[in-house]
Amino acid sequence: MPLFWRVVLTNGLVFVVGTLVLAFSPATVSQRVRTTEAAVLAVGLLVIVGVNAVLLRSLLRPLDRLTATMREIDLRSPGLRLDDQGRGPAAALVEGFNEMLDRLERERSATRAHALSAQEAERQRIAQELHDEVGQSLTVVLLGLKQARDRATDPEVVATVETLQETTRSALEEVRRISQRLRPGLLEDLGLLNSLASLATELTETAGIPVAKGFGPGLPTLGPETELVVYRVAQEALTNVARHARATSVHLGLTRRGGSLVLRVADDGRGPRPGGHVEGSGIQGMRERALLVGGSLRVGRQEGGGTEVVLVVPVEES
């Protein structure tokens, strides 16, 4: 029955009962209402209003909880549901709301997985084109410069050609580095731990920040999708350290805690800005990847200063 008719019938029932009590009770009202009669009428009116309020409150209380829950819903933190469904029409509304959240989270998860898969495919395509097209072109340029260097006799020309050789060689190394970051070949060839160690070494070489690695024993065997998520989160976290942290040291750890795999990247830099609640696209991307494998991500200030990024991914107990 619609909520409107339930409210109408509830009020009608209360008024009918009050009318019947007034009709069949010995109480009467004089033409000029006496004080005692006014008191009886006031008490009766209060009783009717009170009973009506209690009945309506039992029907509509779940709607208040539903409104409060709707304000707290965030699809980036799934799992929040309204457990107390109440009775009457509110129960159907709460049940429908929970089913809507289930559907939205499933659709968001599927869309997120598709988007990240497309992103990885695009990265691989760009990496392949950089390696095959740009890399080979620069290699040809290097060979041509070598021939020009061998044939040149003028010292100034030789110096110029050597400078161009060094510039081209640096550009070729940069193209290879970008290609490797776009498509982590080490992850496929050498595994997750060696790939994480390579990221740490790269940060030290490019930014001059020493990285202390701590890989715990008993790490489980992960699927390709989970390995890629852990690698990408570590890569983004270390990139943020190099760009924004102004750190002098970094800790990169991967350990197992019961049924969870924990990746931790912590630095001693300036840490998050006070009151800075707006997350950039990098952190949002890390959260999206964590949700893709059923994990969670926490980014915040660690004790003693600096930023701490913690990724928790559930794994099988065996």
Features:
Heat Shock Protein 90; 8 helices; alpha+beta; 318 residues; single chain
Structure description:
With 318 residues, the protein is of the alpha+beta class. The protein has 2 domains: 105 residues, no CATH class; 132 residues, Heat Shock Protein 90, CATH 3.30.565.10. It has 8 helices and 5 strands, in the order H-H-H-H-H-H-E-H-E-E-H-E-E. The protein has a 5-stranded mixed β-sheet, covered by helices on one side. Helix 2 packs parallel to helix 3. The chain is elongated, with a radius of gyration of 34 Å. The protein starts with a helix and ends with a strand.
List the helices and strands and how they pair.
Elements: H1 3-24, H2 35-72, H3 89-151, H4 155-182, H5 185-189, H6 192-207, E1 211-215, H7 224-245, E2 250-257, E3 260-267, H8 281-292, E4 296-301, E5 307-314
Parallel strand pairs: 1-2
Antiparallel strand pairs: 2-3, 3-5, 4-5
Helix pairs in contact: 1-2, 2-3, 3-4, 3-8, 6-7, 7-8
Give a short synopsis of this structure.
The chain folds into 2 domains: 3-107, no CATH class; 187-318, Heat Shock Protein 90, CATH 3.30.565.10. The chain has helices at 3-24, 35-72, 89-151, 155-182, 185-189, 192-207, 224-245, 281-292; strands at residues 211-215, 250-257, 260-267, 296-301, 307-314.
In round numbers, the mean pLDDT is 79
Stretches where pLDDT falls below 50 for ≥5 residues?
A: none
How many helical stretches? 8
Question: Could you name the CATH homologous superfamily of the largest domain?
Answer: Histidine kinase-like ATPase, C-terminal domain
Q: Please state roughly what percent of the residues sit in beta strands, choosing from under 5%, 5-15%, 15-25%, 25-35%, 35-45% or over 45%.
A: 5-15%
This entry's quaternary arrangement is: single chain
Number of domains: 2
**Biggest sheet strand line-up:** 1-2-3-5-4
Computed structural class:
alpha+beta
Distance between the termini: 51 Å
Please give the largest β-sheet: 5 strands, mixed
Order of helices and strands: HHHHHHEHEEHEE
Q: How many beta-strand elements? A: 5
Gyration radius over CA: 34 Å
The CATH class designation of the largest domain is Alpha Beta
Could you say which overall geometry the principal axes of the C-alpha atoms support? Answer: elongated
Please name the CATH topology of the largest domain.
Heat Shock Protein 90
CATH architecture of the largest domain: 2-Layer Sandwich
Helix content: 55-70%
